[in-house]
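Changelog-adjacent note: as of this version, every example in the card shows the full chain rather than a window. The one below runs 254 residues end to end.
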Amino acid sequence: MGERAAATVRRNLLSRVRNPLALRLPLFDPDKFLTATMPFVRPLFTVWAFLGWLALVGTGIFLAVLHWAELTDAGSEQLFSLQNIVFIAAIYPLIKALHEAGHAYATKAFGGAVHEVGIMMLILIPAPYVDATSATAFREKWKRVVVSGAGIMVEFSLAAVAMIFWVNAEPGFARAAAFNIMLIGGVSTLLFNGNPLLRFDAYYIMADLIEVPNLGARANKYFWYLVQRYFLGYETAENPAQARESANGCFGTR
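Full-length structure tokens:
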């Protein structure tokens, strides 16, 4: 057992340093804090809270469509300015911290544990992460889907609140902050975390919904099978869709 524990430590250390552009630096164990604060957060994991979230996000989308011309004008004026880029870099970690808190509290709400929170250097950009792998043990797939989608829901909520504020605020620092929160919590989240073709939250949501473990690896194998069979003409190419594969878990570090 000691040798196995040491091997696990070495394997985890190697996984953190193998890719210098995606380093993970664990900071502390948040499980006790999550347990202590869970009574304040648990009401958010109800049907009524979900309906309220739908109404909030729907309002934000409606206002965005209604004020689309103003949003595009504001984007063209301030998006790529040096001041705005620095502003985005400052608030991005805060939004992502709330995103990861969504994963952590969703895991705790369904009886899981979260024993690691840290900083991930994603292409040299610091971003927080939590280890939600205990959600793998949830028997009901809808619980695993909620854990995967909790971060997206948090960011969409922030974007909707920022949109409502932006519509009613006067030009200035606060309105500029609201615009950037909309950009990160809405557009960025939709393109990356909400994209099932990338190995982020939506990928795990789809893998659980269609009940296909290792979805990315299987999709890649099937793609190259199609290339070999129909583009290169290899009639003996084996169709991976007909092969037996072990059903490994499809959850990882969020």
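Structural remarks: The chain has nine helices and three strands.
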